[in-house]
Amino acid sequence: MKLSAVNQLDKEAFVALLGGVFEHSPWVAERSWASRPFASLQALHEAMCFVMRQAPATQQITLIRAHPELASRARMSPDSVQEQQGAGLDRLTPEEYERFQQLNRLYRQKFGFPFILAVKGKDKNDILRALEARLPNDRETEFEAALSQIERIAWFRLEALVEE
């Protein structure tokens, strides 16, 4: 849909279109609607990220936890399924799958939320290396990394939905 048409949507239609940009968190789109009209796709993205960043930490952690673990077989949003398939995470060998599961468990135990990475343009080896590299971080660093990665994921999803 063209950005000019997005700017004309009522709140309900806006949320219906963009509510999934932030995983299972339509509140981001709902609160961003009042910032219309958006001069560019970048401005729309910035408005949505601002809403996410201004949310209370409890709401941010709920957003982070709404994301599926990478390489899991858990129920995922259609966007997450497509993103993980694009990175080859649906075609892991049993050994690779077990390694991802082991690292995901360690990560979740340490930080209390899933490892989040914008996987577009990455393959399973890139993702595994990133997971291993970030595991030694402290919780504050990883909380910020998760929000930053969610912003990247949101950008890719907006690009797929909205034309300038």
Structure report:
This is 2-oxo-4-hydroxy-4-carboxy-5-ureidoimidazoline decarboxylase. One of its GO terms (biological process) is purine nucleobase metabolic process. Keywords: Decarboxylase, Lyase, Purine metabolism. The protein is mainly α and 164 residues long. It has a single domain (3-161), classed as Oxo-4-hydroxy-4-carboxy-5-ureidoimidazoline decarboxylase (UraD-like, Orthogonal Bundle), CATH 1.10.3330.10. Helix content is 63%, strand content 0%. It is built from nine helices and no strands. The chain has helices at residues 3-8, 11-18, 27-32, 41-54, 57-65, 78-86, 94-111, 124-134, 139-161. Helix 4 (41-54) runs antiparallel to helix 9 (139-161). It is globular. The N and C termini lie close together (9 Å). The mean pLDDT is 93.
Beta strands, count = 0
Question: How many distinct helices?
Answer: 9
Which value, in Å, is the CA radius of gyration?
Answer: 16 Å
Task: Give the proportion of residues in helices.
Answer: 55-70%
CATH architectural type: Orthogonal Bundle
The chain-level structural class is mainly alpha
Query: How much is the average pLDDT?
Result: 93
Stretches where pLDDT is under 50 for at least 5 consecutive residues are none
CATH H-level superfamily: Oxo-4-hydroxy-4-carboxy-5-ureidoimidazoline decarboxylase
- How would you characterize the largest beta sheet? none
When the domains are counted, the total is 1
Give the CA-CA distance, first to last residue: 9 Å
Percentage of residues in DSSP E strands: under 5%
CATH fold-level name:
UraD-like
**CATH top level assignment:** Mainly Alpha
In N-to-C order, the SSE pattern is HHHHHHHHH
Spatial shape: globular
